[in-house]
Amino acid sequence: MIEAFSALAAFSAILRFALLGAGVVVALLAGADWAARTRRISPFSAIARFTRSRVDPRLAVIERQVVRAGGHPTATPWWGLVAYIVVASLVIAALDMVVGLLRDAAMASTLGAQGLIPLVVRWAFAFIRFALLIRVLSSWFPGFASSPWIRWTHGVTEWLLRPLRRVIPTIGMIDITPIVAYFILVVAEGLVISVLFPGSR
Question: What's the confidence (pLDDT) of residue 169?
């Protein structure tokens, strides 16, 4: 079990480094594309031709959403960078969640029946957070959120997101209620575990 955790920790470190490196590349491409779109560099330069042929087609979905929300198309590269940061953060959070679940299972196995109920509570909160992550990721792909493979996440998370939307406004075209809900779940889990099972932490 220790070797498995060591392997997961190493994989997590490598993934974080890779996502950080990719983020730097995405930021550079976003800056170049923005400069080409706003004519801060010549539209006939090699950089502008590259961004039009290689970057812009991959941002078409995001650009449609920006325009639909009333934004200017020139802001699309920066929204693409925001989308990358959100997705990368969710991937890291999902990996951390898996590592945490395996760690909890290992700890519960050493406590026997006494560790079973706290484990079930932790896994219940983890399941809701997982559904929240899947719902957020699917929302970035039009039409995918209505898939039967994704629809179940609405039933699992809507009870928490609906009241938050009434009090938390969107920031531009971004709905931050899933982020708030995620942290609420983390805090609630800690409180439940510490109150009901003080010796299990």
Answer: 83
